[in-house]
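Issue 218. Parser rejects a valid record. Input:
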Amino acid sequence: MQMLTPPALLLICWGLTFVVAGLALANPQYFDLLAVFMQREELDLQAFSRLGLAWLVLALLVLLVGDLACRRALLPRREFVVGLNANRAAELTFWTNLLFLAITALWILLTARKLGGLAQLATLALVDTLAARDMLLGNKLFTGMRLAYAALPATGCLAAGLLALPRGALNRRNRRRCRLVLGLNITALMLLPVVMSQRLLLLQFLLSSYLVACMVRQHLFGLRWLGLGALLFLAIWTLRESLTNPLILHRFALDLGLQKLAFYFTNDLWNSFAPLHNDTPRTLGGLSFGGVMELTFTDSLIRPALAERLEAAEALRGGGEFSLLTAPLVDFGPLGGAVYLFLAGFVFRLIYHLGRQRLIWAVIYAQIGAALLFSSHGAYVTHQNLLFSLIVISALARMASSARQAARPTPRPPLQVKPPIVAAPLTSLSPTQFRTRRKTPHTAYRELEDA
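Output the parser choked on:
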């Protein structure tokens, strides 16, 4: 289980980022398109400075110190318990997932209706994926509607956690429901990247489902499923890149997909180094707490006040977002960023500790752990998609727990009633029912009485 701890997941993510980016930059003869992509995003190799490397190492150390401080403060771990009505949780997950899928399907159908049908929308997605994406984004049904399909990894993760419980925890009907949730979600999240750039949701779903299964069973297992998920994600990645880069016709789709994947690792690493190479404005939480502002509808009030700072920060990065280790630096500076990362390390370890004791916390940690595995790509742990997913998981667990308590009412103590007094039954018809218990007088006493 040490491979599932927050420090281990962070080291896996950042180690893979450095290895892939380093190999791509060191072998330009094999990754010849990398220079083209970097030039398009105006990425300069001079940003990879020693100062930037020093900050990344320091940020990881501060996270580890926060993790260690939490470990020292925690009580001994208890045995793992479900903590809710598993069958009720499976039912709620199934119907909630259907609601999210229905909203997404209705959104796509109404957009396709404006174009003349699903065939026309599919044709547009194949010819010009960016135009199809803009068409969908301009036809949202209501504010925050994108959170509906963004929560599909959460319901899928909860279904995977329920399936990982011992076989007797779910009845056959609810086991089929959980399997159906997994099948529907993986299908939907494979199709969405064709018209929407939402490959991160598929990665979140695959990683969190595997993590929660390992957390529930308390050991690593099924590494072949992890490899199968990696191949599936690579296939969807390659398909998306072949659609969004149609002008590069002289390359095979797999070659193009791998080179673009190498560029993403390089770009993410560049975004983590760049703020140390330039004068960094303080965005005062505009990056680290952007998701909270989106969910609380306060972004329209706060972002105008930070508009100049946020625009200056955006000029420092290439494509994508700042990483988990760099966003606090841009927001609060070195000292404030270090405090933020210390608290983050403390909270990550606390949730991991709770996840080894209770199902709902295992699901929550799986969502956060999956975000840590691609933390070099952005601070997804504070993104509105993940925060909304955690709200959905908590609400479903709360309803399943309340159903369990209602099904098992506290028994009332029985009334203390004295038993009735029953007369002894008659043993004979003689009128004499009782015999004296007096002993016969002693002979000496009898002679004394006669005298």
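Fixed in the parser; the record now loads. Residues 2-35+45-280+316-407 form one domain.
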